[in-house]
Design goal:
The complex is a heterodimer of chains A (202) and B (488).
Chain A: H1 3-28, H2 37-43, H3 46-80, H4 86-99, H5 103-109, H6 120-123, H7 125-165, H8 169-194
Chain B: H1 2-9, H2 14-27, H3 30-33, E1 34-41, H4 61-74, E2 78-86, H5 89-95, H6 108-116, E3 121-127, H7 128-132, H8 134-142, E4 146-149, H9 151-156, E5 165-171, H10 182-203, E6 208-215, H11 242-258, E7 267-271, E8 274-280, E9 283-290, E10 293-298, H12 300-303, E11 316-317, E12 321-331, E13 334-348, E14 353-365, E15 368-373, E16 379-381, E17 385-392, E18 400-401, E19 411-421, E20 433-435, H13 442-466
Parallel strand pairs in B: 2-5, 2-6, 4-5, 17-20
Antiparallel strand pairs in B: 1-3, 1-6, 7-8, 8-19, 9-10, 9-19, 11-12, 12-13, 13-14, 14-15, 14-16, 15-18, 17-19
Protein name (chain B): ATPase H+ transporting accessory protein 1a
InterPro entries (chain B): Ac45_acc_su (IPR008388), VAS1/VOA1_TM (IPR046756), VAS1_LD (IPR046755)
Membrane topology (chain B): Single-pass membrane protein
Chain lengths: 202, 488
């Protein structure tokens, strides 16, 4: 095994064995009642969840876009050596992928208010719903854009190379790419639905 | 049972554990408020060895009386009492040659007497009101009056083994007119003790000897760890201002409460000889808002400890409900004042476990009832007791007034180091204490979660970057090197 694999297995092993041993200790000493998920969900601040959601939305979308561009870009550069005409046609489409990141504008809109409570009773159910919805929406958009970006990137790389060989193939492969983009679009739609009724405030 | 488990779970590193133990021992205020007491009898007389007190246990008035009674029943009834003005354990540790320097000890006669005595009784910590009253106690038990003596008068006295006698030798402690050091004073006292004991020996009358002090000496440096009280920061903070004074008063109050020894049994309610409800707190105070000011009344001494004379009339307990009523008189101008703890237990389906809650804490006075709700935060599994360091209605409140118009809004209740149990009691001791504070706080969990996420992301990125390699597919080590021409 190379160095990376050893490191990752070591860390994973340490993490899971800690969890296992803590769990066993809780069970043996009949302290299982102290493992309180409800306490965790009500005591952690909805602000944290909402902001994590926004952060994950942006960052995962960007990772997807970047990965896609990286894959396609290397193919375009390689193919462009012998067939320079493929450059312009293929690069344009990657702007559209990053449009997905515009979702953040919608998420930030619901965040213009904040609440002033400190205990679960004073914070109120609506703020908790806002926090968790935004976390979920962020995850939705983030992961769907991540995989959409990778998908479009790989298909685009194939498209560029095919186009270099035979210009008539470009339009046909474009259709496949559109299906790939649709994945990201679904994610955006679902996230908008999740945050549609959300409003933070007192 | 589970307390050892929780100790395991709280895997405090060793250094902080030592510091904690040190702080705990110092913070008890132990060494500066108690007086040691040493009792022995003349050689050859054996008296039954009492089970020695556990370390840190402070012997109160009643316990001391029982010790003296047992000793005087069996042992000789001629008592020689060496009463020093002030005495503390530190005097023995500082001047007793205990650090391997036996030759520097200022107590040679005392040590000699204890060595020869068959079973001396050493009580390292007697509460000083008790030691102050030791003369009167001995007088009561021996039914004779004390004779204050010094070695000269003793040699002229003829003692009788059959009739009891109480001979008191007062020994000084603080520096007299000639400003002698403590060491010299103690050395002189020890010489007096030696003289007296040798005179008693020549008289060949069996005797019981006691060496104790009237008050703790407080001579030694007793520092209390002021961690967390902000004592060290006051130099940097700007002084003055009403808020500052309020905070300081609060801190002072807290410090006073914290320094209490707090060694007393819990308030116990028995139903048909079986203990049903237990309540313990280190501090209990109620305050009422009158004409814009809070008036406080400390109820600790009337509820707990030796002065506790609170009546539990009206308390009841059955299988599902427990109700503890503390009846006071004359609190804050109210003739009758009751503190009612209402607890209930039932089975909860989701956790499939029985839990008990402190449903409400009621203050009943002159017909008015102020109710604090506690069921939200004060709960524990029914087999265990509930314990919390601070149960108040104003500072991180665990007790909230039942409604916005409830009279409880005019009251403040504060418990320090609160522990309660209303069900499943076997004996008169608390079961395992389910503490209100968990291992990690909410903030720690949030930080851990976010940090874990960041670390995962970082790991992923690092992994990807580290597996990028330069292209070496078309490398040809034997071919010509690439040349970059300088000109266009």
């Amino acid at each position: 095994m190379n160095g990376h694999a050893i490191l990752y297995t070591g860390v994973t092993l340490a993490f899971w064995s800690t969890i296992l041993i803590v769990g066993i200790c809780y069970t043996i000493f009949d302290l299982g009642f102290r493992f309180d998920v409800a306490w965790f969900l009500t005591e952690t601040s909805p602000f944290m969840w909402a902001n994590l959601g926004i952060g994950l939305a942006i960052s995962l979308s960007v990772v997807g876009a970047a990965w896609g561009i990286y894959i396609t870009g290397s193919s375009i550069i390689g193919g462009g050596v012998k067939a320079p005409r493929i450059k312009t046609k293929n690069l344009v489409r990657y702007v559209s992928v990053t449009q997905r990141i515009k979702i953040y504008r919608i998420l930030v809109k619901v965040f213009s208010n904040s609440f002033s409570g400190t205990t679960p009773e004073t914070i109120g159910a609506r703020n908790y719903q806002a926090g968790y919805s935004m976390f979920g929406a962020g995850l939705t958009v983030g992961f769907s854009n991540l995989f959409c970006g990778i998908c479009v990137g790989i298909v685009g790389s194939g498209a560029a190379l095919a186009d270099a060989q035979n210009p008539s193939l470009f339009v046909k492969i474009l259709i496949v790419e559109i299906f790939g983009s649709a994945i990201g679009l679904f994610g955006v739609i679902v996230a908008i639905l999740q945050t549609s009724k959300v409003k933070m405030g007192d | 049972m589970a307390s050892s488990g929780s100790a395991l779970l709280r895997s405090i590193p060793a250094v902080s554990a030592v510091l904690l133990a040190l702080a705990a021992s110092l913070d008890r205020g132990s060494c500066s408020e108690q007086v040691p007491l040493i009792m022995w009898s003349s050689e050859g007389i054996f008296w039954p060895q009492e089970s020695p007190p556990t370390a840190g246990h402070i012997v109160g008035q009643q316990q001391l009386t029982s010790y003296l009674q047992k000793a005087l029943d069996v042992g000789p009834r001629n008592v020689v009492l060496f009463l020093q003005d002030k005495m503390s354990m530190e005097d023995f540790t500082k001047y007793g040659g205990v650090f391997g320097n036996k030759q520097d000890s200022v107590f040679p006669s005392l040590e000699g007497a204890l060595r020869v005595a068959v079973s001396p009784l050493v009580l390292p910590a007697v509460s000083w009101p008790a030691s102050n009253a030791v003369i009167s106690q001995l007088q009561d038990q021996l039914e004779t009056s004390a004779l204050y003596m010094d070695p000269e008068t003793l040699s002229q006295l003829r003692l009788n083994a059959s009739s009891p006698a109480l001979l008191v030798f007062r020994l000084p402690y603080s520096a007299g007119a000639d400003l002698m050091s403590t060491k010299d004073i103690l050395s002189e006292n020890d010489a007096v003790i030696g003289q007296v004991l040798s005179i008693m020996k020549t008289q060949s009358v069996p005797y019981t000897a006691l060496y104790t002090g009237l008050q703790p000496s407080g001579d030694v440096v007793s520092f209390s760890v002021e961690a967390g009280l902000g004592g060290g920061r006051s130099l940097l903070q700007a002084r003055g201002g009403y808020r500052e004074r309020e905070r300081e008063r609060e801190r002072e109050r807290e410090r006073r409460i914290r320094e209490r020894a707090g060694v007393y049994p819990p308030v116990e309610f028995k139903e048909e000889e079986k203990t049903c409800i237990l309540l313990w707190a280190k501090g209990l105070s109620v305050s009422i808002l009158r004409s814009g000011r809070w008036e406080e009344h400390d109820l600790t001494s009337s509820t707990f400890g030796e002065g506790g004379n609170v009546s539990l009339h009206g308390s009841s307990c059955d299988k599902n409900k427990a109700r503890l009523v503390l009846n006071y008189k004359g609190i804050l101008g109210h003739r009758s004042f009751k503190l009612i703890f209402a607890m209930s237990q039932r089975h909860y389906k989701v956790s499939s476990r029985r839990w008990f809650t402190l449903d409400s804490l009621e203050l009943e006075y002159d017909g008015t009832k102020a109710t604090f709700n506690g069921s939200r935060q004060i709960y524990a599994p029914v087999e265990y007791s509930y314990r919390c360091q601070s149960v108040t209605s104003y500072r991180w409140p665990l007790l909230v007034p039942r409604s916005a118009k409830d009279p409880a809004n005019q009251w403040k209740v504060a418990f320090e180091d609160f522990q309660i149990q209303g069900f499943n009691l076997s004996g008169s001791e608390f079961s395992y204490a389910s503490d209100c504070a968990g291992f990690f706080s909410a903030g720690i969990w949030m930080g851990l979660m976010t940090s874990l996420l960041m670390v995962l992301v970082l790991t992923y990125g690092l992994h990807m970057i580290m597996q990028l390699n330069t292209m070496d597919r078309f490398d040809d080590p034997k071919g010509p090197a690439i040349s970059v021409p300088q000109t266009e």
